[in-house]
C-alpha cells in the first residue's frame, strides 16, 4: 500500500510517498524535533521491543470529516483457513491466565487470537479500508504501509477501523478516549439496550476499565498541569459491540511532549496489555504468537508536536501479494473472567474485519 490514511469522524489525513523511513521511534522523534521533516506517519508495534513502521511522507492531504471513498468496492472471495491459536487453545489459555490472576500474580491481562484468511484474488488494502470506513464512518479507519519495519513486513499493510483513541495532542491540550469492558450488540433494540446497561452496571467490567484509566492518569499526571479523568465510564457502541469508555483531557506542562512522545509514554495501555505492566507483557510474550502491529498504535505527529494515535485493534495485516490476511482480536482477562465468554467476545470483535471482507463465518 503506497501511503497512509487515517479517517476519523472529524477529519482525515492521507499521505503519499516516502522521503524517509524509521524503524525506531527515537530516530523519527529526533527528525521531527530538528524539523528535518514536517510530518511522520505510521504504526507502532504492540511490543515496544519490536521495530516500528514510520514514514516521513512526500505529500499530505487533509480533509474534513471521514474519508469518502465513493461506492463500496467489490472484494474477492476470502475464507478463514486457520486459527492461531485454535478456539479450544484460546479458551485453555484464558483458563490458565484466570488461575494466575486468582493467585494475585496479575490483575489484568489481555488475551488475543488471530484468524488467517486466504483470498481468491489479491485484496487491495485500499478497497478493504474503503469498505471498513463505509461500514462505520464514525470509526477510526486506518491503512498503513508496514515496509519501514523491514524483514517480513516489506510490502505488508495494516488495515483496520478502531473505536479507541490512544491520544490526540493539539498544542498543549491532550485527549485520550480509552475503552475496556465489552458486550455484544443485539438486533432487538430492547435486548440491545439492556445489554449495554448491564455492561455499564457490571463491577467486573468497571474494574477492567479502571486499570486502563488509572494507567493513563499515572502516565499523564507528571507531564500535565491539569488532568480531568471522570469517575465513571460511559457507554459507546460500534456495529458489533458496546464498550465502556472514558474521555480524558489534560493540559500539558511546557515543554509539552510531542504526540509521538505521548504515544510512547502511554502505549501499550492495559486495554491491550495488562497490569502490572511488566508481568502482563511477560505473560503475553510467553503465551501468545507474536502480535506484530495488532494491539499497537497507528497515527501521525507533526514537527510542532501535534498528532493523533489510535489503538491498532479491529484490524488485519495484509500480505504483500494481497492473497493472505491475518486478523486479530483480544479481550481483557481478570480473575472473574469466563473462558467461553472471552472466546465469544473475540469472535464478535473479529466481526468488524470479517464483515468488511464479506466473510460471514464466525471467527
Ligand atoms: C483488545 C481489543 O480491544 C480492547 C479490549 C477491550 C476489552 O477487553 O473489553 C475493549 C476495547 C479495546 O480496548 C481488540 O479489539 O482486539
Automatic annotation (TrEMBL):
Alphabetized Gene3D superfamilies for the sequence: Anthranilate synthase
Catalysed reaction equations from the record: chorismate = isochorismate
EC id: 5.4.4.2
InterPro entries for this protein: ADC_synthase, Anth_synth_I-like, Chorismate_C, IsoChor_synthase
Taxonomy, superkingdom: Bacteria
Keywords recorded for this protein, A-Z: Isomerase
The keyword RNA-binding belongs to this UniProt entry's keyword annotation: no
Domain Chorismate-utilising enzyme C-terminal: from-to ranges: 88-349
Enzyme class per UniProt: isomerase
PANTHER family, sorted: ISOCHORISMATE SYNTHASE ENTC
Family according to the record: Belongs to the isochorismate synthase family.
Protein's UniProt name: isochorismate synthase
Lineage: Bacteria, Bacillati, Actinomycetota, Actinomycetes, Mycobacteriales
